[in-house]
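Please go through the protein record below and explain what the tokens say about the fold. Record follows.
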Amino acid sequence: MNIRRKYEQDPNYEMSSNDGKDYSLILYNDDVHDFNYVINSLMEVCKHDAVQAEQCTYLVHYHGNCQIKTGKYNQLCDIKNKLVKKGLTVEMI
């Protein structure tokens, strides 16, 4: 059983930071933040360049979500927390 499925079935299941797998950070659309805010947040927190941040922002706007970063659990957890503090809706899968 993959970790995501296990996590979805049991919300108390904790994804191990030592499992060696790559995770994805997904940004979801909201009706609160404007394009510039999201673009600037992605550039600041995720270290996206302007073009990448703009493309992700448009994908989120038109498709509802976008994978904005992949990496190890600990690395993404820090990025996720910073984006959440900025008021953005993100999920790590």
Q: What stands out?
A: The CA atoms of residues 43 and 50 lie 7 Å apart. The two ends are 14 Å apart (CA to CA).
